[in-house]
Amino acid sequence: MDTLPLHIFSIIFFINAAAMFALPIVTIAEPMDNKPTRDVPGSHKKLSALDQLNMGRVSFDAFNTLDSSGNAIIGNGSGDLVLIMLDESGKSPRKKSFMLDLSFFDNEGNLNDLTVNDIQNLSSTVAIRAPELNSFIKKSKEPENILWLMAGIADHTFSILGDFQSLKFINSGIVITETSMPKAPLSYNDIHLKQVFIKHLIEQNNFYGLEENGAFTSFSSESSFFIKDRYGYLSDGNPIYSKLSSKLFLSNHQKRLCQIQTNPSLSFCSDFNLLAAAKIIKHEDEYQIFITPEI
Questions:
Q1: What is the distance in angstroms between the CA of the first residue and the CA of the last residue of the chain?
Q2: Which of 195, 193, 167, 185 is nearest to 267 (CA)?
Q3: What is the structure's pLDDT at 21?
Q4: N or C: which end of the chain has fewer CB within 10 A?
Q5: Which residues are registered as beta bridge partners of 219?
């Protein structure tokens, strides 16, 4: 089949300037709670602060999070990719949003989280099924008007000396859906702001009861509710959501540091990759999510 080429663009921001699913399908800066360090079952190793933070929860890769000693927890790029839906068919406060921690079964029958790292390295179509997804859509009075999107955070950085000069961005940024193929990366500041918002939304859903590989429905009176005007737009005003029948494009916007000849000091920069196309399809009375890499 004809596939779209991988688009990679770069843009520099100075620190002081402010035929889709034909591929083979794989079926399928707040401190954390002051928890004691736990042993890994069957091992003498202790859980890292990141593992403790993520235990039983949806991961935002420890973005802007401190451990119980006040030290920054370093992510590893494996923030979870989540599906978010908004059903505005009910009267307020009965409007509902829905968050699903995306996961899939591999060919060996193992359940795997779908993380930012996974989607960045996707090589074949993934089909995702979830009974909670079906239930949320089928209970809607206007399923055709449900809005949907996907988002995730990575925050893997490294600094040898703990200072700005030795700082390296290994995999720090966002994976989000867009209604059309993006032509340029978001700015460094826009990426950071989106990380803040995505983290807050995931954190609130975790607090209210979302568990790893699970789903949670929120009502408009709750802080875990997806507020379209707060979370649903990029800085240029373009939405990151669309209606249920629409295809969306998954892109990865990453932070980095760069240096150019006209300015010897380090500057904040950003890159982006078009990763995949995604669509929700109803098949034999079951809604499934299909994610196909743009190779």
A1: 11
A2: 167
A3: 36
A4: N
A5: 96
